[in-house]
Amino acid sequence: MKAEQNQRITQVGPGTPGGELLRRYWQPVALLDEFDPALDPAMAMRPVKAVRVLGQDLVLFRDAHGRMGLLDRDCPHRGADLAFGRNEGDGLRCPFHGWKFDATGQCIETPAEPAGSSLCTRIRQRSYPVQAKAGVLFGWLGAEGSVPPPLPALDCFEAPASHSFAFKGLWHCNWLQAFEVGIDPAHASYLHRFFQDAALEDSYGKQFRGASAGDVGGERWPMTRVMREFGQPEISFTAQPYGLQLTALRKMTAELAHVRVTNAVFPQTFVIPLSETMTITQMHVPVDDTHNHWYAFFTSFDAPVNQDTMRQQRLATVTLPDYIPKSGRHNDWGFSPEEQQTRTYLGMGEDDINVHDQWACESMGAIQDRTREHLGTTDKVIMANRRLLLQAIDTVANGGTPPGIADPALYGAIAGPDTVDGIAPAEGWQAWWQAAVRTRRAAAPWRNAVFEQMTTAPQPEAAGAK
């Protein structure tokens, strides 16, 4: 890749081509948990947070009526930082001269001005639409006055609160290299290789520790065993309204194959299986060019999610209130040469594979230099996604509509999407996995009505594998 192309797809600030594309999509700005006094006691007195998204400094606050305001941080009077403002219930007041702004950004008081002054009626701080979905607050950073598209009917947004859980973490690298790990089907056999398999009974909430659907001779295999023993997947992808559907096929025997179906929801989300009954929808949200937050949505198609267990498993790996990982470059991501020789391929822990991905992404540098890489056959999805990204950037730069979930015309065609990790008949594995996900979806206590309408309506012929 040429240096100018790498710059084009990694820059996210206002006015950059890549940043203008990403501003056409709703962006997560905070977890609802971040306003929970049980996790951050400061929120009991002052529910105000400084946030940085797409290279913009913003302030997010909740007023006494529960309304969320997302405003530019620099006070429109003389530029002081509103993240230190006084939350007075009806608005956020700048301590510099007392100017107060409500959740819409309207200035409602300028107390130092002469009596009878109407200055405040003419002052409005730039504000951004906010909505809560699946435990996350989303902000719309598009051009002022633009109409945001509806959030798509993805499973993570359709499932009730009882069947979902959200978490996040900060990585010190560009968003794109983090996202590309999530759409790389080959790396799981190496980066996440465990030399011993753990008990399936202790797999709840842990990625790759659960069993693949199906069995081998009546024996259920942990995902870790499949990944370890079959390291040369046949990778294919098909175009979908939301982006790309990815398939990694691992031939096990003449009769059996392991099939793993995941999805790339353009431009920054991937959907993968956590277990037979739970999926992960993960979004990589640029903080700026050299940092990103990952937001993970866990969706259950079976029993309600044990949110306390999921939360405690993950809180052990970060520091609050900023969700900064305890492992990182500063401590070699917890690397152990002894572990690398005896327990894991990487040597960076067995309980939290997020650290494995974090190392892969952060060790590339703050912004990966793609002019120095040498791609192989297993990188076909990476290459396809980069082409989509460059095309979409050009489309927006030329005044066109960005693809996928940013296009309101595609709303009715986007739902799910389905995932699977299972051991299937070598002949007819396509029919097997499609039947498996239909069965899982039919058994879910909740139903994605949009998905059901799509699957019962006549369907256009699917795009061929590339």
Structural notes for this entry:
Helices cover 22% and strands 24% of the residues. By secondary structure, it is of the alpha+beta class. It folds into 2 domains: 26-139, Rieske Iron-sulfur Protein (3-layer Sandwich), CATH 2.102.10; 153-456, no CATH class. Strands 12, 13, 14, 15, 16, 17, 18 and 22 form an 8-stranded antiparallel beta sheet that branches. Strands 5-6-7-8 form a 4-stranded antiparallel beta sheet, with no helix packed on it. A 3-stranded antiparallel beta sheet has the order 1-10-9, with no helix packed on it. The two termini are 21 Å apart.
Q: How many beta-strand runs?
A: 22
Distance linking N and C termini? 21 Å
Number of helices: 12
Number of domains: 2
**Major sheet: size, sense and barrel closure?**
8 strands, antiparallel
How would the global form be characterised? globular
Mean pLDDT across all amino acids: 93
Features:
single chain; 466 residues; alpha+beta; Rieske Iron-sulfur Protein; 8-stranded antiparallel β-sheet
Summary of the model, kept short:
The chain is an alpha+beta fold.
Secondary structure elements and their pairing?
Layout lengths: L2 H8 L6 H6 L4 E5 L10 H4 L2 E6 L2 E7 L5 E5 L13 E2 L4 E2 L6 E2 L5 E3 L20 E4 L2 E4 L13 E2 H4 L5 E8 L3 H8 L40 H7 L4 E7 L2 E9 L4 E10 L3 E5 L4 E11 L2 E10 L6 H9 L2 E2 L4 E2 L11 H6 L11 H9 L17 H18 L17 E2 L3 E6 L3 H15 L5 H8 L10
Parallel strand pairs: 11-21
Antiparallel strand pairs: 1-10, 2-3, 3-4, 5-6, 6-7, 7-8, 9-10, 12-18, 13-14, 14-15, 15-16, 15-22, 16-17, 17-18, 19-20
Helix pairs in contact: 5-9
